[in-house]
Inverse folding.
């Protein structure tokens, strides 16, 4: 089984990205083959700051490696280092019905938010299809919001296969488990767009301050509280052991505690949880040439695979002779 997924370098990764996506990528890296890439071409549709894009791309690689992505097991690369994907994107574009892209809700949502509706934003799903098809991916772990793009990918692959003969493998989405939809510091879903994130590798002092400012209700100290519906408890549960969770839940139900105590406990468990990754990240950050080498090796492996599929597509539609 071949697994592939991409993540956009539009900012620093936060707890929501970790529990909603990255942790599951890492679990899947033990499959026969896995490919993970930093989708900088996709990020370019919304991020127009040369330095930020460069910095975020390197930071994304450092974060993923520090969190446990193992280049011995998974191929890690930067999307733009594999130009075969962009070539394949053009070929797919020639058979993509406009209506299909017009129906994509991600495009409509972004446009409604005021992001300029450029051709790159509109054709975003075609590049995503090329990413997936270029590696003959069987399984694509993605969040719920990307399922529609997977449907587009399957439709485009089927249409091409129908027009030119069997060329592409049809991928299946694997919906990431968001049962732990991670709340942000304001209790809403944690997201860069809501400015309510806790970054995984934020400096500890700053992170602690942020945690101490998590919004809570105005319950009196002595009142008991139902833990399961409380976002502070939900955050604590992401990091705590079962025993710690039970103990905290009992304290909630009993009452006689303040939220400050829970926030401190959250800071402690989260720091412990990421302590090793933080150390690894510092080591890696001091060796940028090593990270560049990992990404270079990843791109070389990825290019070999993508070149085979691209050639097959070029031959199928008549761009190259058989
Ligand atoms: P953001 O909302 O911060 O822009 P992205 O859309 O780039 O995050 O998400 C990248 C991945 O992280 C996706 O798979 C997404 O579903 C997951 N993810 C983001 N925020 C959360 C969250 N609060 N809870 C669970 N998963 C999340
Ligand atoms: N669009 C995805 C997201 O925003 C990122 C992405 C780009 C991707 N290409 C991909 C995910 C290919 C899976 C497969 O989350």
């Amino acid at each position: 089984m071949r697994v592939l997924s991409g993540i956009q370098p539009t900012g620093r990764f936060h707890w929501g990205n970790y529990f909603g996506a990255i942790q599951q990528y890492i679990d899947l890296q033990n499959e026969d083959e896995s490919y993970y890439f930093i989708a900088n071409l996709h990020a370019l549709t919304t991020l127009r700051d040369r330095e930020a894009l460069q910095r975020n791309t390197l930071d994304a690689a450092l974060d993923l490696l520090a969190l446990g992505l193992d280049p011995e097991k998974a191929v890690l690369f930067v999307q733009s280092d594999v130009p075969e994907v962009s070539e394949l994107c053009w070929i797919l574009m020639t058979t993509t019905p406009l209506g299909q892209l017009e129906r994509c809700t991600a495009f409509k949502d972004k446009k409604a938010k005021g992001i300029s509706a450029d051709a790159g934003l509109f054709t975003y799903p075609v590049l995503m299809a090329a990413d997936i098809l270029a590696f003959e991916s069987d399984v694509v772990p993605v969040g719920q919001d990307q399922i529609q793009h997977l449907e587009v990918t399957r439709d485009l692959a089927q249409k091409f296969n129908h027009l030119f003969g069997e060329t592409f493998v049809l991928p299946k989405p694997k919906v990431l488990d968001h049962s732990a939809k991670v709340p942000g510091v304001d209790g809403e879903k944690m997201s860069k767009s809501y400015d309510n994130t806790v970054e995984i590798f934020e400096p500890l002092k700053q992170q602690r301050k942020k945690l101490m400012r998590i919004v809570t209700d105005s319950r009196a100290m002595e009142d008991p509280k139902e833990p399961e519906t409380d976002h502070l408890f939900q955050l604590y549960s992401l990091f705590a052991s079962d025993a710690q969770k039970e103990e905290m839940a009992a304290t909630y139900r009993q009452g006689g505690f303040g939220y400050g105590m829970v926030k401190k406990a959250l800071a402690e468990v989260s720091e412990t949880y990421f302590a090793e990754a933080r150390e690894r990240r510092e080591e890696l950050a001091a060796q940028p040439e090593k990270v560049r080498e990992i990404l270079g090796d990843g791109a070389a492996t990825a290019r070999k695979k993508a070149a085979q599929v691209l050639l097959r597509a070029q031959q199928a539609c008549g761009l190259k002779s058989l």
The chain has two domains: 2-181+287-317, 202-273.
